[in-house]
């Protein structure tokens, strides 16, 4: 049953260019890539974080460590309708204390995922600062959270669904918006 | 793939589906990571009240459940019935109802009567976890055993396990038999004929009274505790004879595979069912079992309270 009309709003090249620009912005704002760590929110945020890390290596020659954060245990809707308790492991094999953490996710929407991620990171140590990078900002914030780096601003309505597809997970690259 | 556990409670592995077992094991991996952090706490079950009610003594299991609940930020209350209203003759159902009136979110119960957890599970609206009921089931023990095996071996299907000891009186054996069979393992049980239940082969296990033959070529040897109290009941002549015929020692272990895992639910009778050499040796994962027990219990608490 095809109840959705979908449109591609960002293609593979668009994603690549956005990530390259974000990598340059990170270097600009942090005056280099020293003392940075990248933490991706599982699971697509992790692939994006790795792509940023490889660009940082090209631009600055610095190996920025990448960690993976699963925020399921920090969510604010545990036990409620629609909560699926599937856990994927958190794997952050480096200390976060005194580092500038670049938190990466694919889509920024209500901000609740980021709130959970902040709690998750701070439980692991006290970072010097946390900056937020997202590929897509689709608006409709429910918490006072804002991104530092954005790939693309995409105004959407609540009935729409934004899906980021990445080769590492979905076999192809693209951002699709669909309406029910 | 399961996204929530199908049942409200965890009473045993006999009725649990393989898919759910797999899901619990996968969840426990993430939980294990929490126990490796500096701050071993996540806010997941904040505000939830967990009551441990143990009608039989236990240090290991009760502590494991308590730590599991606390690591998930739950409020944990322990009731050991020697110091409680049960001594004054309160019935199980009444105890259950009175506790419910204080609005707990989950109950963990160990009881000497088979089916006691089920009675509470059927009468109370909250999830109930069986921490051991008589000789019937001890599901979280079997789950942590499966998790420990999977951790070392990568997968469970096709592995050969031998469970050795007093099978008749062992809930650990029963739960493991159900769990291992569901996950595609081959199970052998061994013990003196007086301690093997009748018709046990109906559970799909191979039955041995010769422990040397039982452990030939196996991947896992699980030793059960021989209860010293049973000595006087005519079930076996003496601890020394039991140890000689059924105890696991370095010489005997060689019959198993070179990378065999040695397991024991604890507490051990050193020198009786297992020698210190083997218990403390390189093949033993006995202490890993205890560590994994916390992770598994965190996983079941989370899945029962997190699913709708």
- CA-to-CA gap between the ends of chain A? 11 Å
Radius of gyration of chain B: 19 Å
Give me the count of strands of chain A.
8
**Estimated helix fraction of chain B:** 25-40%
Regions with little confidence, pLDDT below 50 for 5+ residues of chain A: none
- Cα separation of the termini of chain B: 16 Å
Net shape of chain A: globular
- The unreliable regions of chain B are none
Total helical elements of chain B: 11
Give a description of the structure:
The complex is a heterodimer of chains A (180) and B (308). Chain A is built from four helices and eight strands; from the N terminus they run βαβαββαβββαβ. Chain A is of the alpha/beta class. A five-stranded parallel β-sheet of chain A has the order 3-2-4-5-6. Chain A has a three-stranded antiparallel β-sheet with strand order 1-8-7. In chain A, helix 1 packs across helix 2. The longest helix of chain A is centred in the first third of the chain and has 18 residues. Chain A is globular. The model of chain A has no long low-confidence stretch (mean pLDDT 94). Chain B is of the alpha/beta class. Chain B contains eleven helices and nine strands. The radius of gyration of chain B is 19 Å and the shape is globular. The two termini of chain B are 16 Å apart. At the A-B interface, loops of A face helix 1 and helix 11 of B.
